[in-house]
Amino acid sequence: MIMRFKDLAGPEFPVAEKEADKIMYIALPIGKNILIANDVPESMGRVSENENRSKISITAESKEEAERLFNGLSAGGNVEMPMADSPWGSYFGMFRDRYGIEWTVESV
After folding, report:
1. 93 contacts 82 by C-beta, under 8 angstroms
2. What residues make up the domain containing 93?
3. What is the tens place of the pLDDT at every residue in 5-22?
4. For the segment 10-61, what is each residue's pLDDT rounded down to a tens digit?
5. Model-level pTM greater than 0.85?
6. Are 41 and 5 spatial neighbours (Cβ–Cβ below 8 Å)?
7. Are 98 and 73 in contact (CB under 8 A)?
8. Shared domain check, 64 and 17
């Protein structure tokens, strides 16, 4: 599913023409997970991706699947926390991909 800012534009929610095609909501089902993302319109203020601590989170069904996802998505990026057993009882890793997007991968 995808929704753009122009889809909700109206008198109560004016949208600048240059932001009309930006994504307000997009969902991508991956197995039992759903990745959700959006653009941030300029009207919401300055946004720096390097300062943005929001992450895309994936929960895998096994350690093997978590490793495969982590290794594939983190290729060319920067690993912040390698996949390992976490203090809270899951198998967990964190990275910023080659496009600057932050991710967490976990299996329980």
Report:
1. yes
2. 53-108
3. 999 888 988 899 999 999
4. 898 889 999 999 988 887 887 776 677 777 777 777 766 555 556 788 889 9
5. no
6. yes
7. no
8. no
